[in-house]
Amino acid sequence: MNQDAHHELEEGLRLQLDFQKLSAISRHQNAVVPVVVQDMESREVLILAYANAEALSESLRQKKAVFWSTSRQELWVKGATSGSALELVEVRVNCEQNSLLYLVRAPRGACHTKDGTGSYRHSCYYRSLGESTTADLCFTAERI
Fold this sequence. Notes:
By secondary structure, the protein is of the alpha+beta class. About 20% of the residues lie in helices and about 30% in strands.
């Protein structure tokens, strides 16, 4: 993906959901589970990522959020390059044991995108869908 397309994906108002993400993960035969990452104090959902057994083990060992990067096919220690490390407080497992919840402290936020002031966004969920009667959905002009 070129830089302009990447910027439009992260900052644009046109909805471009990747409905093929899970198919792509399974094609690479990644043995992963989804990880919902939530701020311990505010309970705000920060990101959705994936973990394999090694990432979970490293998260517990380091007491930091560690994931499996499905795009780079490697272990991803959140914040290793950005400085936005997520302190792992607790790990929860859902009832079907097919996803995890990481409760974290995120002093510098969790998202790699920046807001209008140049600060990293606290959460990756900074846009909301507006009402639309067409198939071409767009985000509302207001961002969370």
